[in-house]
Specification:
The chain is of the alpha/beta class. The chain contains twelve helices and 16 strands. The strands form three sheets. Strands 15-14-11-12-13-16 form a six-stranded antiparallel β-sheet.
């Protein structure tokens, strides 16, 4: 089986390295420039910098390199409407989700509204979206009456870009916070009012700030069904390590989300506890997470389960057994590319 992985997030290095040990698989990896982990692939090719005819490039690569399975991340939403052309070449393409669902998931406000409208049984924080300063102030005052603290983030962003916890306490000193650097994600409400433009170039969300632990649920799934998953608990008091745990409530919600968006491949869902220890959905990342290599330390061989999934082979209960309570380092050896 020949699997092609195009430009992806950093943990693709772990997958390529693991597949080196599987004699039934050869790998092709592509990137717009040379990267260190291309050495883990059996073959490496360059991708075009620009995406003017990325579909044509992908179809040509599949033919020339006799690809059996294509697992795209870069531009997968653009490729999805043309999936029939890949099928005609005999290539199985693992799309994380449809193009329409990706655009919903990628916009956090649209994602939350979708879950509410469809009455999907998951816990969602209080939220609102604003496109102007006037809307922001109005939404802030309305939500603030029902919660202890609010935070903000752009509706579309990654890597916590634009995320801020808003402080409106009378004794909060933004100058001291800046000097001492206690919290790079903090901003004073009055300070924020001076910064906000009258009209935003990007929609901003206001959300109930959840003060509890954060959870990252890394999942292997196929066509809306969870095959296996491991939860990493990021305890706010333990910044040096994470715990690999079992959490039935998170498992229940993840199964609903995977089914709703018919997710496939490696995906990641983020949660955070409220003050009472109840987990709430933050977001779905329809891709391999940066912390993915850590979850294999619980005992599940996720990469080779992925290969068995592609080959439609039976996965046994023994292969899904894992140990909980394992401590894993917070940092990762793989850097972003």
């Amino acid at each position: 089986m020949k699997i092609w992985f195009n430009r992806n997030f950093s943990s693709i290095a772990f997958i390529l390295e693991t597949l080196q040990k599987n004699p039934a698989v050869t790998t092709l990896f592509s990137h717009t420039h040379a990267v260190e982990h291309q050495k883990f692939a059996d073959s490496f090719i360059y991708e075009p910098e620009h995406s003017d005819d990325y579909l044509g490039f992908c179809l040509e690569v599949c033919q020339q390199h006799q690809v059996n399975v294509f697992y795209p991340w870069r531009h997968f939403a653009r490729l999805y409407p043309h999936r029939k052309q890949f099928a005609e070449l005999g290539v199985k393409v693992v799309f994380p989700c449809s193009d329409a669902d990706f655009h919903t998931i990628d916009n956090k406000a649209a994602f939350y509204r979708h879950l509410l409208e469809k009455n999907i049984g998951v816990n969602l924080p209080l939220f609102a979206a604003a496109n102007t300063k006037a809307e922001f102030i109005q939404q802030y005052q309305s939500l603030r009456a029902n919660t202890h603290r609010l935070c903000m983030k752009p509706s579309v962003s990654i890597y916590a870009a634009g995320f801020k916890v808003i402080h409106d306490e009378a004794d909060y000193d933004p100058w001291k916070a800046l000097i001492h650097g206690h919290d790079k994600y903090a901003v004073a409400y009055q300070q924020l009012l001076h910064l906000l433009p009258e009209v935003f170039f990007r929609e901003m969300m206001l959300l109930d700030f959840l003060p509890g632990d954060e959870y990252s649920h890394d999942i292997l799934c196929h066509d809306g069904k969870v095959i296996a998953g491991t939860i990493r608990q990021k305890h706010h008091a333990h910044d040096k390590y994470q715990l690999l745990i079992e959490n039935p409530e998170i498992g229940r919600m993840s199964a609903l989300l995977v089914a709703e968006f018919k997710l496939s491949g490696f995906i990641n869902i983020q949660y955070r506890d409220d003050k009472n220890g109840v987990p709430f959905v933050l977001e779905i990342n329809p891709r391999i997470s940066g912390g993915f290599p850590k979850i294999t330390l619980a005992g599940i061989d996720y990469v080779n389960l992925f290969v068995k999934m592609l080959a439609n082979q039976e996965i046994t209960a023994t292969e899904l057994q894992q140990d909980f309570g394992v401590k894993v380092a917070s940092e990762t050896r793989y850097i972003s590319c």
